């Protein structure tokens, strides 16, 4: 493809948009990146990065408390305002790095609000005026925003989303979290580790309802052990917010009082006010932009318009809204526009992690999902095993006994030599977010169970959990007895 004179407008400088812009610029396109705030998107500014800075501090404090009997003097306390300042400094540091990467690669960054004027033109409203572009290609990477609970006044000093939590310099005195997904559970872990009373409410039957049921139950047990009040299977019917308190009423008439409410009920696409209708670009009933895969061209709209990340939907498939997914989609679109070969994203092999204390990670199918798929195939069998952290020497020595790894095996007995695949893996415990990638790397091998059993894991490491679980599938484990301990 002759790229001379070709230009691309990327709308949104988050984890999907900015890598896409860099790769397009490197391929010879005149690339304009439009971002209304700072580069990095929600992930960097008010999500993945600052929240992990806070959770890491809470974890270190928790680890000190775990060995307090061996220490002299008092356990230190966290200066909350300084911790928030520290996290914002990290964000600013990374943001400055991204600004430098854009300049180094020749990406023109335009700070402003982009809107389609028609099918061929993009209008950008800036503080010092406006600018109009007629690009050959457009990549929509506008991400998402927090959904608000109906009837809750927002903005309000007592009503929090991830943005307010990660910028306020004073912690809540008593926190009510509505929403037991990843965001709600991560902040529950953080504030509980600071000895702040936390109540978390989830309308489904368990926390982290997308996880394997065994993982959810374990996390709830750990949360309650740590003093978190966990309420599941209940809906909020009324919210009273005053200048000094919050009062929540549930559908069983239970009343919960706190100093603040954190709303963590999910996300909504940030596709409003983009002028999509003026460009003939369609959205679904929830506001997401349907795209086709593997190239992410919008299903309804002009040729040469692509969409990626949290703002898209894929017909017939649940689209995972995560930063690493958006990044890969952006890389693919850059290859599509540049005419380069690419490997389609395998949505069945995406590691997904929740950074609670302890961490939760998964890849592939839950045990229930695997059984539903194979129930009509008599030659297929689903097996599962669990190995707890407390079975490892490292788990005992570091006092990290909570949690386990669970491996779900799909065994195809039709062939002369049974084909054994890791249908799914689920981990709750120390280092789960790192361990899951070992399994991701081998999961789609022809015989992933046999392939991974051949790996020798260093002792003592958390990775030994994987080896012990694989051996347990064949009743060969040394430190755990029985296939289902």
Q: How much of the sequence is in beta strands?
A: 15-25%
How many discrete structural domains? 3
Over the alpha carbons, how many angstroms does the gyration radius reach?
Answer: 24 Å
Quick one: overall form? globular
What is the highest CATH level, the class of the largest domain?
Alpha Beta
Low-pLDDT runs of 5+ residues are: none
Compute the separation of the termini in Å: 58 Å
Cofactor: FAD
GO molecular function, one term: flavin adenine dinucleotide binding
Domain Pyridine nucleotide-disulphide oxidoreductase dimerisation: 350-469
Pfam families: Pyr_redox_2 (PF07992), Pyr_redox_dim (PF02852)
Write up this protein:
This protein is an alpha/beta fold and 485 residues long. It has three domains: 7-145 and 268-338, FAD/NAD(P)-binding domain; 159-265, FAD/NAD(P)-binding domain (3-Layer(bba) Sandwich), CATH 3.50.50.60; 358-473, Enolase-like, domain 1 (2-Layer Sandwich). The chain is built from 13 helices and 25 strands. The chain has helices at 17-26, 41-46, 48-66, 80-105, 162-165, 182-193, 213-225, 323-338, 367-374, 393-397, 432-442, 448-453, 464-473, and strands spanning 7-11, 30-35, 108-111, 113-116, 122-126, 129-133, 137-140, 144-146, 159-160, 175-178, 198-202, 229-232, 236-241, 246-250, 255-258, 260-263, 267-269, 289-290, 305-307, 312-313, 352-354, 360-364, 380-388, 404-412, 419-428. It has a five-stranded parallel sheet with strand order 3-2-1-7-19, covered by helices on one side. Helix 3 (48-66) crosses helix 4 (80-105). The radius of gyration is 24 Å and the shape is globular. The protein starts with 6 loop residues before the first strand and ends in a 12-residue tail after the last helix. The model has no long low-confidence stretch (mean pLDDT 95).
């Amino acid at each position: 493809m002759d790229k001379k004179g070709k230009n691309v407008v990327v709308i949104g400088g988050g984890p999907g948009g900015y890598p896409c812009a860099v790769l397009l610029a490197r391929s010879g396109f005149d690339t304009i990146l439009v971002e209304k705030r700072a580069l990095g998107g929600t992930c960097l500014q008010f999500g993945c990065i600052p929240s992990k800075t806070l959770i890491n501090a809470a974890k270190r404090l928790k680890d000190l408390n775990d060995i307090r009997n061996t220490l002299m003097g008092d356990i230190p306390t966290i200066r909350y305002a300084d911790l928030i300042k520290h996290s914002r400094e990290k964000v600013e540091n990374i943001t400055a790095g991204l600004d430098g990467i854009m300049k180094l690669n020749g990406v023109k960054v335009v700070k402003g609000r982009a809107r389609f004027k028609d099918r061929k033109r993009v209008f950008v409203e800036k503080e010092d005026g406006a600018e109009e572009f007629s690009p050959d290609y457009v990549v929509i990477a506008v991400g998402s925003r927090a959904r608000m609970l109906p009837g809750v006044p927002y903005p309000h000093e007592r009503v929090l989303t991830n943005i307010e939590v990660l910028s306020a310099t004073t912690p809540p005195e008593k926190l009510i979290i509505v929403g037991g997904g990843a965001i709600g559970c991560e902040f529950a872990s953080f504030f509980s580790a600071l000895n702040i009373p936390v109540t978390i409410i989830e309308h489904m039957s368990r926390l982290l309802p997308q996880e394997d049921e065994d993982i959810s139950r374990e996390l709830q047990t750990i949360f309650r052990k740590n003093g978190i009040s966990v309420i599941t299977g209940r809906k909020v019917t009324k919210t009273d917010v005053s200048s000094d308190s919050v009062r929540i009423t549930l559908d069983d008439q239970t009343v919960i009082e706190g100093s603040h409410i954190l709303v963590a009920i999910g996300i909504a696409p940030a596709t409003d006010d983009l002028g999509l209708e003026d460009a003939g670009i369609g959205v679904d009933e929830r506001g997401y932009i349907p795209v086709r895969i593997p190239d992410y061209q919008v299903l309804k709209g002009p040729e040469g318009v692509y969409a990626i990340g949290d703002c898209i939907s894929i017909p017939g498939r649940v689209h995972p809204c995560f930063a690493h997914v958006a990044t890969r989609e952006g890389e693919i679109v850059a290859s599509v526009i540049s005419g380069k070969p690419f490997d389609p994203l395998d949505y069945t092999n995406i590691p997904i992690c929740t950074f609670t204390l302890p961490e939760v990670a998964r890849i592939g199918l839950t045990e229930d999902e695997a059984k539903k798929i194979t129930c009509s195939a008599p030659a297929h069998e689903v097996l599962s095993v669990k190995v707890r952290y407390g079975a490892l020497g490292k788990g005992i020595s570091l006092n990290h006994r909570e949690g386990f790894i669970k491996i779900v095996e799909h065994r195809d007995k039709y062939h002369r030599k049974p084909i054994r695949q890791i249908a799914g893996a689920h981990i709750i415990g120390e280092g789960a977010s790192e361990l899951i990638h070992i399994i991701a790397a081998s999961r789609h091998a022809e015989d992933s169970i046999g392939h991974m059993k051949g790996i020798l894991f260093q002792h003592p490491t958390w990775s030994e959990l994987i080896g012990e679980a694989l051996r347990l599938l064949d009743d060969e484990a040394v430190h755990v007895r029985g296939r289902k301990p």
